Amino acid sequence: MTEKKPIAASSDRPVRPRRSVLYVPANNERALGKIASLDCDAVIVDLEDSVAPDGKEAARQACARWFSSRPMDREYILRINALSSPWGSDDLAAAVRCAPDAVLLPKADKPQDIRAIEAGLRDLGAPDNLRLWAMIETPAGICNARAIAETAHAPGSRLDCFVAGTNDLAKETGTALSPGRTYLVPWLMEIVLSARYGGLDALDGVLNEFRDAGAIAAECRQGREMGFDGKTLIHPAQIEAANAAFGVSGDREADARLIVDTFDKPENRGKGVIRIDGRMVELLHLEQAKKTLEKVRAQRARSKGNP
Ligand code: COA
Ligand code: MG
What spacing in Å lies between the alpha carbon of 167 and ligand 2's midpoint? Predict the structure, then answer.
């Protein structure tokens, strides 16, 4: 039985804009060269699924070259192969040399997978600020998502974000990736719930049909309503829809500011509940409003080229 530790409040972690998180195959020089012109919040340079087995070493070298002059304008994450694969250990060592903001572990099945990566990073002398992201994309990963998230409660844990891997989930379970994702939704919600339990961010899976503007807008809307912080993407054409859906709209920002300002009025100091325009507003809404404003600040800073 795992020892119960106090749950890390998500507000303890800095708010990072992760509306649009674009995968780029590590061996696609042309796509890597395009990143600077793209308005995505973060980039995942991929050594796993998008790189064929006989291209892994060349992709690692391409990564080393690219990261040696990486820009500091947003988060850059390096997706390695699983430690159980023939490439995982070499990828992890290469990742530490590349110094991304985070390493993304695919196919996280159980808490021990996280602990093994944490131990590997420690042995390799990775800096404390190198974060760990984990993909939940296998039947075992879904069944163990809460236990995996619980590893984030350990002191010094690097675990920071869950990423839904919908293509692998569909492959492993036979579930259809149909519009609306009817049968995937319960598992996606498990990922969101578990992420929150661990105080982590959660990113939705990719949409393969990158030419379908209506489909990406609808799926981003759905992801936001499920509680995801952003969406992983495969093509530049999907960035705008994700930024729009997961960003804070002007109306939401104005409402958050109204809540903060109203609670701040002398007559409302010390109150737990107030009335604004005919609705009840409690301290929990104040907390939510402050978080929204923090998100707006983070988004604006990112647009100005700061991560
Ligand atoms: N990141 C950055 N740039 C990308 C990109 C990406 N993920 N996908 C495409 N581009 C670039 C192309 O290089 C091309 O640039 P150019 O105008 O300078 O030639 C431009 O966007 C238009 O690309 P397009 O011709 O529409 O697509 P494509 O046929 O080159 O690529 C895919 C289509 C699906 C192969 C490609 O988008 C891709 O590899 N995506 C990521 C796949 C991945 O990482 N999968 C693993 C996680 S699921
Ligand atoms: Mg995969």
Answer: 6
**DSSP per-residue letters across 174-228:** -----TT-TTTHHHHHHHHHHHHHTT-EEEE---S-TT-HHHHHHHHHHHHHHT-
> Hey, how many other C-beta atoms are within 10 angstroms of the C-beta on 298?
19
Q: Could you report the per-residue pLDDT of 234-283, keeping only the tens digit for each? A: 999 999 999 999 999 999 999 999 999 999 999 999 999 999 999 999 99
- Location of each CATH 3.20.20.60 domain in the chain: 20-246
Q: Which ligand is nearest to the CA of 50?
A: 1
Considering the domain 20-246 in this protein, what is its CATH number? 3.20.20.60
Tell how far the Cα of 234 is from the centroid of ligand 2, in angstroms: 12
Residue 150 has pLDDT above 90, yes or no: yes
Specify the residue for token string 């796509």.
31
Whether pTM > 0.85 for this model: the answer is yes
